[in-house]
Structure formats: structure tokens, C-alpha cells
Amino acid sequence: MRILIVDDEQEIREYIASMQEWRKIGCEIAGTAANGEEALAILERAQADLLITDIRMPILDGIGLAEAARSAWPSMPIIFLTAYHEFEYARRAIKLGVADFIMKPFRPEDLIKSVGVLLDEREQLNGWREHDDFFELFSNETVEADRKHEWLKKHRVADGPFMLLYVEWDGTTDSITEYASFAHIHLRSLISNASGTSGFNGLTASNGRGMYLLIPLGEEEGMKAEDSIMAFARSLVASDGYDVETSFSIGISSRFPSLLHVPVAIRQAGRCMEYRMLLGRKSVIAYDALKTIMDNREQESADKANRLADLLRSADHEGVSRLLKDTYREMLSSGSNKKGMQHFCLQLIEKADSVLREFGINPDPDEFVGIRAKILSLAVLTDIMKELEGWLLRSADAVKRVIAQSPKRIVADLQRIIAEDYASELTLQNVSGRLNVNYSYLSRLIKKETGRNFSDLLWEQRIEAAKTMLLREDMKAYEVAYASGFKDTTHFSLLFKKTTGLTPGTYKSQVLKQTNS
């Protein structure tokens, strides 16, 4: 490694340049300079690999020199020589654009040790090239599986189960772009060394903002390995390698059976980083746990939407307002983000629209579009909830006016029964008894008001329920059939395909693929 020494004090730069220890660690002095301007002129011709510079210098100081050097040679490591009172100022100004800070007065062994670490990391760079090739190839979903298998065979890498860790800076996007590339070398070195020490021996790669660590798992390894990886991740974020300003968080993918699933694992890790905003710095987020949270929230949202539908069907103004107030408090306590709040409010609007259509009410086209645009344009939760409440109460008023017309009320009650009890043994006869109307009259009324038969309404509700159940990982297709009210799995498959154009299995795979993309 060729070193350029920059210091305005001649005695200091000559002393550093004459240190005998440089030869022992395989280094030589490329030149010396009294200020940053001289150093830049020398760097053009000296082919230096490392810059050791003072901060306080005339003409062009160390900070200005470091910024100029980063522009021309972004991967060149820089070591600052600094007095104690300059230390925090230098850290703020340069952030991670320097490899180390050596305090004046310094001991020669401290400087030699710092450069020795850089030498080790430079050698390690060569071993990372194969890792970069792997991630470039396996993260590309357009590359055929055969080509990926050929790469594994050529590099003697075994295919098999793995988990992916993604380590990402906690800083803002603007501050991340200011980090020198050498900071990523530090981070990669930290992760690689910790991985090897823990016995994982993973593959690493940078995406510019953070670092991936792919950990191969043995075929026989199960929950024990996953627990070990979680403990490893927690110890990594708690390490003292970086201060609070430059801390990082980690997302952990699910366990996958083959390296061909790397693109999906990368997307899962990205979803974990999206959730970090609710947890704060130095977070460790496992996708499996996150998915459970998301599933529970989706179920809670669906339950609230169904309760809203019942309240609107009975034109219960107080109930609608109370539901929205409870929802507002829950959003505040759970720390929901803006996108999540808007999505839930739109879900309630969609449910309200479906109730209105049950009663034969077609919303005004301008209102139909306007309320959605309003929800998406507002930035304050109280404003969003106020607009939503006003629209829902107007919807309840519209239903109340229709309820006075007995035929529409009977049909609305019928559809409520179907929505609540679709999985039970519902027939037109027993439903007519529950509604206290004549069987034949109810049949004619349904046809007149909806244009369909009772059985059509029942099967449609069962198919809609089956769509949701099919996305659950703990339910097989035949279990979904029985749980949604079908007595025959063949009938279920035929009716499902007739309704959706897809078999139950194809529908599930397509929706999950869209969700993970």
C-alpha cells in the first residue's frame, strides 16, 4: 500500500514518512505534502492507495482535501490526524468518509495498527468478488434456473436451504448518499467477520444503502438455526462498531429451500425495513413475525369493515360514529403510517359502497370518486376521519330512507343472513322462516330486487369467503371447501372456476405471487 502523508508541520510529516515500521507491514511512502492543495497535485501522479492527513492546514484543510479525494478516488481510505477539540467536528463533517481518526499526539504503533487493518480489509475485497457475482446472478429473476445451477457447480457452492439477512443504515436517504464507499467496506467486513465467528460463513453483497448476508442452512437444521440467526442479528445491531447516528437495523427473511428463491428473500427483507419506521433504530425484524402481524391487522380491518356494514344496514348513526372513534384511537396507539391509514379508510368506503348497492343505491359518480380522492389528499388523521365520518353518515341516511320500503329491507336482511351464516345449512325455506315471510313471495322478491336466485346469492358469498381462506397457509383446498359451506370438493372446484375463471390452486398461487412481487 502506497501512502501519502499530509501535514503542515514539517517535523510531523517527516517523522511519519521515516517510520521503519512501514516496510514491516509491506507499505511505502508515495510522497508528502504541506497542505491539501499540494496533496491533490501529488495524488494525480503518485498512485497512492492511502491518504493520511491533518485536519487543520492552510490553503486547503484536511476536510476539503478529503472531499476532493472522495470525488476523484471514491474507494481510497483516509486516516485523519486530529487534535482532541477537533474530533467531534470532524466526525460530523466527514461522517463515515474516513477510515480512522488518530489523536495527536499519537503513538506510532496506533498508526501502524490502523493501516494494518486497512491492509487486511483490502485483501478481503478479493474474496468478496465471488459473493458479488452470486448476488448479481441469483437476484435476477430473468436468468434461467439452469444457468444458476451451472454457476453453483462451477464455484462448488451447494444449493440448499438458506435465510437472508439485510443490514441497512438507520440514517436518512440524504445522509446515506454522503457515506464514502469505504464505509460500506467497514460494514461488510464487520458482518463477514461476525458471520464467520458465529459459524455461519455467509455470502455478503451491498446494494448501496445496506448489506445482504445469505446464510446457508443444513437440511436437518430447523428452529434451532433460526433462533441462532435471530440471536446473531441482535448481537450485531448492539455492537459498538458504530454510534447512534450511524446505527443500522436488520431484516430477516423466511427460511427457503433453495438458492433460487433469493429474489423473494430480498423482497421479504425489504418489507421488514418498511416496518422499521414504527420500531426505531437498531431494530431486528423477522419477516415471519411481521407477516403474522400483517395478517392479524388485515383480519382486524376486515372485522371492522363487516361491523360497519351491519351498522349501515340498520342505519345506526351512533354506532358508525362510535366505530370510527374507536378506530381513530387504535390507529394512534398502534403507530399506523399514513399509507396504512388511507388503505383502511378506503377499505371502509368499499364496504359501504357494497352495502349501498345491496339496497339498490348507486352512489353519485362525482361523490364516488371525490371521497376517495379526498382521503388520499389529506395528510392529517383527524381530517381524514372527519371526511370519512361525514360520508358514512350520509350513506346511513340513504339506507334509512330505503329501509322504509319493506321489500328492500327484506332483501337486505336476507343478504345479512347469508353474509353471516354462509357456512351453515342455509335454504330458502329456513331463511324465509327467519324473516317471517312466505317462501314463494321471498323467492319472487329476491329475483325482482337482485335479478338472481337465492342459490346464486349463497354460492357467490361462499366463493368470496373461499377466496380469502385459500390465502391462509394453514388451510388446504378441501378444508376451504368445507369451511365455506360446500359439501362436495368437486362441486366447489367447478363452481370456483366457473366464477373466477381459475382453479382454487391457480388462484392461490397467482395472488401470492402478486403479493410477494
From TrEMBL:
GO molecular function annotations of the record: DNA-binding transcription factor activity; sequence-specific DNA binding
Domain Response regulatory: 2-119
Keyword set, alphabetical order: Cytoplasm, DNA-binding, Phosphoprotein, Transcription, Transcription regulation, Two-component regulatory system
Domain HTH araC/xylS-type: 412-510
Gene3D superfamilies reported in the protein's UniProt record: 3.40.50.2300, Homeodomain-like
Entries under SMART domains matching the protein: HTH_ARAC (SM00342), REC (SM00448)
Signal peptide: none
Coiled coil segments of this chain: none
GO cellular component terms given for this protein: cytoplasm
Keyword Oxidoreductase in annotation: no
CDD domains on file: REC_YesN-like (cd17536)
InterPro entries: CheY-like_superfamily (IPR011006), Homeodomain-like_sf (IPR009057), HptR (IPR051552), HTH_AraC (IPR018060), Sig_transdc_resp-reg_receiver (IPR001789)
Subcellular location: Cytoplasm
Protein's GO biological process: phosphorelay signal transduction system
Superkingdom assignment: Bacteria
Sites bearing 4-aspartylphosphate, chain numbering: D54
Entry annotated with the keyword RNA-binding: no
Identification of the protein by name: Response regulator
